[in-house]
Amino acid sequence: MKENNNQLELDNTNPFDKIGFEEKDVKEVEQQVTNHISSKNTPNVDDNDLSGEINYNKDTVLHLEKRRKKIVLLRIIIMFPFFIVAIFWVYYTCVIGYNKDDNLVMLIMVTLIAIYIILLIGWFISNLFLKNKITKLNLDYKREIVLNVFNSVFQNVFYQPNDGIKETTIANTCVFPASDNFKSNDYIKAKYKNIGFEFSDVFMEEENERIITDERTGITKTEKYYITLFRGQWLILDFNRPFKKSVRIIENGLRNAMRKNFNIPMKKVEFEDEQFNRIFSVYTLDDYEAFYIVTPTMINNIMKLKSKIKNQILCNKWKEQ
């Protein structure tokens, strides 16, 4: 098992802007993608194995675009009758059925709601018919385009679109309470400039109950509701410094992180950078360990990262047993 790990959670952010690409790296990727598209190599990949290097050509891109347009056309055809029904509803209620005594505002509201429901039903039915085609197109796009971009940037790429970082891996960090609904996908394991990392999209929510009393009848009932614990990108990085104790850097406002203390007596420490202290809270089991790990360079890098994104950041450096 890995001795040292650094986990970085980015709440609702685009992962490709957050790993720290330099400008020359981005230009290199753009050039490689251009070369791949203009090349004459064709992909040859097993559906169940999306690791390894591949190339895609212009014909591949055109074929995927053709399939996408076909799906759009099929959706329009399926929804067309519902558009007709919506138009008929507007004509019947606003032209034929309109009476001067009617409340015009209420009539418009009812009409808009009806149109929304009709089109929503059409969209739902079209999704049922096109679900398999859309899923297959997304998988092929990730296999033939996204993976190729990964291979042009990272080394030793292993990519599984339908898999993700395991729930137990996240639970072992003792950052978030146990979730009742956990989803994770777009898993990638690779190296960037000799730094190993794992990444995937993660969604966690917690089921709760509340008692509701009907004011008219006095009858009480229990209702379930869900709280989103985390929705975003989870990034695990190899850490190049040995350490013995865990350190957590949590952006203020990420209220679900460490909501439960897990019987871990972590204490808050502050640093000389006042702006950093205003935005982030640092918790540790050992003050010396915190100052050893959270160096001025790391603080500067975290602040630079924060300046580029609007959402919240949580860094968790933990010793894996």
Blueprint (SSEs and pairs):
Blueprint: E1 4-11, H1 23-38, H2 58-96, H3 104-153, E2 155-160, H4 167-171, E3 181-192, E4 195-213, E5 220-238, E6 247-251, E7 267-269, H5 274-279, E8 280-284, H6 287-293, H7 296-308, E9 313-319
Order of helices and strands: EHHHEHEEEEEHEHHE
Low-pLDDT segments: 12-27, 32-54
Shape: extended
Mean pLDDT: 78
Beta-strand residue fraction: 25-35%
Largest sheet entry = 9 strands, antiparallel
Please give the radius of gyration in angstroms.
26 Å
Number of strands: 9
Helix content: 40-55%
Separation of the first and last Cα atoms = 8 Å
Structural class comes to: alpha+beta
Quaternary status: single chain
The strand order across the widest sheet is 2-3-4-5-1-9-6-8-7
Number of helices: 7
Features:
321 residues; alpha+beta; 9-stranded antiparallel β-sheet; 42% helix
Written description of the protein model:
This protein is of the alpha+beta class and 321 residues long. The protein is 42% helix and 26% strand. The chain has seven helices and nine strands, in the order E-H-H-H-E-H-E-E-E-E-E-H-E-H-H-E. Strands 2-3-4-5-1-9-6-8-7 form a nine-stranded antiparallel beta sheet. A hairpin with a 2-residue loop joins strand 3 and strand 4. The longest helix has 50 residues, at 104-153. It is extended. It starts with a strand and ends with a strand. The model is unreliable at 12-27 and 32-54 (pLDDT under 50).
Q: What's the short version?
A:
The chain contains 7 helices and 9 strands, in the order βαααβαβββββαβααβ.
